[in-house]
Amino acid sequence: MAIQVGIIGPGDVARLHVDALRAAGARVTAVAGLTQGSAEEFAARHEIPSAIVGADALLCRKDVDAVVIATPSPMHAAQSLAALEAGKHVLCEIPVGMSAVESLQVAEKCRRTGLSVMVAHTLRFADPWLRLRAEIAHGRITVRHIILRRTMMRRANKNWSGRPRSWYDSIVWHHGAHQVDLALWLLQGDCPDASQVTVSGLVGPLWEGNNQPMDLGATLRVADRGLVSLSLSYHSSVPVEDALIIADEATFTVYGGKILKAVDCTTVAPASFDVGGTPADARPGDLEVAETDRMKFSALQAQDAEFVAAVREGRMPRSSVQDVQATMQILERLAGT
Predict the structure, then answer these.
(1) SS3 state of residue 277
(2) CA distances from 60 to 6, 41, 79, 88, 227 (A)
(3) What is the pTM of this model?
(4) Mean pLDDT per 10-residue interval, the chain, length 337 residues
């Protein structure tokens, strides 16, 4: 029998989950929104049988085995706990909480119930990062320094598709979570250890437009594994999402969903373990952004397929709530700076 999934939060990321879940063989049986109108509109557009007001009403349904929590970030922890209490498996959008304490509460509830809880750290499922992680894990790349950049314009309170929001995004707990988790996963594996990480960093001043920090700069030193430099901004007119992996064997650039390898100062080529590459002088542009978006959707499909498989097989998924505790602990340190 197909796994039956309910969606909590009929927003833009939820529509991606609907397609990915169906591709993985799950049935999307219900969607819950803040209003009947928003739920019904989403249900009609995506051919979902039931539209409901409020998460609690969805969690009571017998035709829901698992839920995707795609609501505003401050609601994630409480709704994950409520779903587990109701006996539902959980796929929670990033972040699982707005503090390390909230994250730990969800992890402990998961352990007590034995239910599957995945957090959508989608980059763990992206092809370029999987290739690099395999090279590092097998000792073919000795990393010295990882430099990660993520910039965008978020002064207007809109989401990634341009839709207005009623809540403000967090550069620490949202995009910071993606970048910190990626770095720790690359260097330490599926379940990183925060006790082996030294953290130095600062968040920017509160911006007068929303009273939120809009910039983050940090350095992580992972014991015996190298340095990580993070640069994030919500003030940038130029959207950038790239990485530089400096290793003994070569320097790798990840950009536009591809990996480039440089072995000296003049030669840049697609990495031998990659299927393609982008020009050495590539700069932010429509093509690269589109390629990154395609990479992320493929990663989301793989992520949701792993969640469905874990529920079906009665096991914890990769990128479980336990796996991301180190990330949440590091973010807690950065949030206090």
Answers:
(1) coil
(2) 11, 22, 13, 10, 47
(3) 0.91
(4) 95 94 98 96 97 96 98 97 98 98 98 98 96 96 97 89 86 98 98 97 96 97 96 96 96 91 70 47 49 82 98 97 98 92
